[in-house]
């Protein structure tokens, strides 16, 4: 039970809206019918009797990329992360020695087909999860112009179209592999009401083709691509170029491995440092004309997953920040993926690491628990009326079934049955309804649950990354313990919280 503290602060949430706002994790994701049909049609046209062998070969190629990343120093010096090109001449500041694709994964036709069959649905699911959270955390954000760097076969573009089906007007794709470009074009061939789409082979080709006034994009996304750039300096240079092309939001997504998380952490540190340095220079300028340059778009803050913009509290702890999205395996995945001596499951868990930046300053929002008072279990019992003590056995049985389903995360895997379902363009209505029930802002009052909560009897333990001040400039990694006796309301929420959800402070 939550009530207002007498005469001072009016609470922003009730217990129900608080739970709704904190719920960002998703259940077993079903790849949309449109995409499954497009993949099926593409693979029928490219039918190959040796597909399983090619899928295995692609998997081995990804392992080689991982080994190359292991050769790079995991702990980078402060100078390299903050200014990777300090030692280079200013005339060579934006010269890239190794571009995306130089790591050896060229994506020939056979590798592209294997990628569509085995990896595209999982990459789509991870992109959809991230973009859905950005939409929910930023209700005022509806991108019209988008840049997809390392577009591949268009996984991110499919996710963008599902999340913002009506706002997008133009999408610029950067993909050096001609085979990937052809596959992406073939997959969207039968779609209607598409925005204007233009493909380029590199960032340089994009910037040379458009004027400076047209280079800013509302949203820039780079998914599963930075790990394929073998030089740390070149990665940072590419991300700086992408940030220059960003008018509002930049999203980086990498595999949920220690190497992928390390890449995200390095890019996060560099962009935040670069923007804070820019603000310090403007604020220390003696001329009023320089100070007037500080606008609402100056600086940068993290939309997700971090609740703060300080140093990552997981640095040098042996842990790494990543999340998991479960998805139903498509027909092609079940047909071509191999299992290790066991029946192939109807689902798979895609691990990913990500960060979403927004230009400007982090808004100073009231913390969600401000003004809320929670009764202890003893106080709740004292307030009960005789009617509350009557037991409705039917409701009790239904509640127990719901709890079991939540904890075990049981799902049915019948993606083929839904292939005949009607397709509409109003698939995002449920998300809007959820926002009306409760929405978490991007202030510093929401922590992020890292790893799965531990439920022990009438207590729940959660590892939470949280801000330590109102400005969100510092953060820490904390173990939160919630017991039923001290706070039954938050205990109820904690029992239903999952890895990736928010936690209010």
Automatic annotation (TrEMBL):
Ranges of biased composition (kind: Acidic residues): 420-435
Iron is among the record's keywords: yes
Subcellular location field: Mitochondrion
Disordered: annotated span: 420-441
Record keyword Chloroplast present: no
Domain of life the protein comes from: Eukaryota
Protein name: Rsm22-cox11 tandem protein 2, mitochondrial-like isoform X2
Source organism: Coffea arabica (Arabian coffee)
């Amino acid at each position: 039970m939550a009530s207002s503290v007498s005469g001072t602060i009016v609470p922003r949430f009730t217990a129900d809206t608080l739970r709704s706002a904190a719920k960002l994790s998703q259940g077993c994701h079903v790849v949309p019918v449109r995409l499954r049909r497009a993949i099926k049609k593409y693979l029928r046209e490219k039918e190959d009797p040796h597909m399983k062998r090619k899928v295995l070969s692609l998997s081995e190629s990804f392992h080689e990329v991982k080994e190359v990343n292991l050769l790079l120093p995991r702990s980078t010096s402060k100078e390299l992360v903050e200014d990777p090109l300090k030692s280079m001449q200013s005339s060579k500041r934006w010269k890239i020695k190794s571009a995306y694709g130089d790591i050896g994964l060229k994506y020939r036709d056979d590798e592209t087909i294997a990628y569509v069959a085995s990896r595209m649905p999982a990459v789509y699911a991870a992109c959809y999860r991230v973009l859905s959270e950005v939409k929910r955390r930023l209700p005022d954000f509806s991108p019209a112009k988008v840049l997809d760097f390392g577009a591949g076969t268009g996984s991110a573009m499919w996710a963008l179209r599902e999340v913002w089906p009506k706002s997008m007007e133009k999408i610029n794709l950067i993909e050096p592999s001609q085979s990937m470009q052809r596959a992406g074009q073939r997959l969207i061939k039968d779609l209607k009401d598409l925005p204007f789409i233009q493909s380029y082979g590199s960032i340089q080709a994009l910037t040379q083709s458009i004027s400076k006034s047209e280079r800013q994009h509302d949203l820039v996304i780079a998914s599963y691509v930075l790990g394929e750039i073998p030089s740390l300096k070149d990665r940072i240079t590419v991300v700086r170029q992408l940030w220059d092309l960003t008018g509002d939001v930049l999203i980086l997504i990498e595999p949920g491995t220690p190497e992928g998380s390390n890449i995200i952490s390095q890019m996060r540190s560099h962009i935040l440092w670069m923007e804070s340095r820019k603000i310090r220079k403007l604020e220390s300028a003696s001329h009023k004309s320089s100070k007037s340059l500080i606008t609402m778009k100056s600086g940068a803050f993290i939309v997700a997953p971090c609740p703060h913009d300080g140093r990552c509290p997981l640095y040098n702890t042996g842990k790494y920040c990543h999340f998991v999205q479960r998805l139903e395996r498509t027909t092609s995945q079940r047909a071509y993926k191999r299992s290790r001596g066991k029946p192939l499951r109807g689902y798979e868990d895609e691990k990913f690491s990500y960060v979403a930046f927004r230009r400007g300053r982090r808004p100073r929002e009231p913390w969600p628990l401000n003004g809320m008072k929670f009764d202890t279990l003893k106080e709740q019992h004292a307030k009960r009326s005789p009617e509350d003590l009557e037991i409705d056995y039917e409701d009790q049985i239904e509640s127990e079934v719901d709890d079991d389903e939540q904890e075990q995360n049981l799902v049915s895997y019948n993606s083929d049955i839904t292939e005949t379902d009607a397709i509409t363009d109003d698939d995002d209505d449920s998300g809007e309804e959820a926002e009306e029930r409760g929405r978490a802002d991007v202030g510093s009052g929401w922590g992020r649950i890292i790893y799965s909560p531990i439920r022990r009897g009438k207590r729940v333990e959660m590892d939470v990354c949280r801000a330590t001040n109102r400005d969100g400039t510092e953060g820490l990694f904390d173990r939160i313990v919630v017991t039923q006796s001290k706070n039954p309301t938050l205990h109820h929420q904690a029992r239903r919280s999952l890895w990736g959800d928010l936690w209010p402070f």
